[in-house]
Amino acid sequence: MRPAFSVLFLTTLIGAAQGLLIALVVGQLFLVVGTGQQTVPGGFYALGAFIALVLLALGLLASFFHLANPARAWRAASQWRTSWLSREVIALPAVMGMAVLYGGLHWLGLDMPLLHFANGKSLDLTMAVGFITIAACVALFICTGMIYACVKFIREWASVWTVINYTLMGLASGFTLAAAYAASWASVLTGLFAVFALILTIAALAGRVYSLWRNARLRPLTTLKGAIGAPHQHIRQVSQGFGGGSFNTKEFFHGVSPEKVRALVFFFLVAAFLAPMVLLALGAGVMLWLAFVVQYVGLLAERWVFFAHGNHVQNLYYQRKA
């Protein structure tokens, strides 16, 4: 498939935003459970939620460049009963709304307790909203991944690993951003976020490598013989099927040589996973910001390869040549 850069930015930006929001809630829960009190100012969570909101908004803006008629974008939500894309269109604004609510409550200091437990701990309003925010982020991760995982005829995508990898990579980039952000505040949460980011990056690397291995072992279920309906056993294609370009030849194939695709695979494995792991292990503030930037660039390359590896069956006739 031909990767659309608007979708590359959409999926990577909202993934990092979701990971950042989840990291903020996890950090708050860690402090409440560990110390029994909030030792980080509300402004820390409010600004973090605002950064996540900006990333979500940028991702939403990028998605409009992928629409043939942006004026009708609102209709994308109308098929929510059957379409994962419609569900994503609903889930994304919901996550944005939860980011505003979570950050706003912290900014206003509205952290009144809702429940008290026997051990002296309590559940306050911001924490309760944080749990709902996590649920909304998880739902958005599932919707985004299932848009591609449900496309059965593109076997490279039609796997539960598409959802798992989207989630793991989004969480990894979000926690890496959270670690860099916490370091700029000299927050006690910096180490926690960095450790989680490292673990999630390792997990994301394992999941993505497995997907590459799985896709490399796939064998086409159809052949050129079936594509043209010919009864002959030995068929050799010598032309593309068109004298010139067409929608089929432009939209369903990336047009890049296999050597360049393999080079991009190597690049994203280093940039999205291996290099950030080293930078996260170093743990310094500047290194953490560098880790996020390098990882984000690597994830853009990873997302390009993800779409490029999607092999549409029509390419048997329109793209492959002898």
TrEMBL record:
GO MF entries: dimethyl sulfoxide reductase activity
InterPro entries, alphabetized: DmsC
Keywords assigned by UniProt, alphabetized: Membrane, Transmembrane, Transmembrane helix
Ranges that cross the membrane: 43-68, 89-108, 128-151, 163-183, 189-210, 264-297
GO biological process per UniProt: anaerobic electron transport chain
Highest taxon of source: Bacteria
Cellular component per GO, a single term: dimethyl sulfoxide reductase complex
Coiled coil (UniProt feature): none
One protein family per Pfam: DmsC
Transmembrane among keywords: yes
Keyword Transmembrane: yes
PANTHER family, alphabetized: ANAEROBIC DIMETHYL SULFOXIDE REDUCTASE CHAIN YNFH
Record-given protein name: DMSO reductase anchor subunit
Species of the source: Magnetospirillum gryphiswaldense (strain DSM 6361 / JCM 21280 / NBRC 15271 / MSR-1)
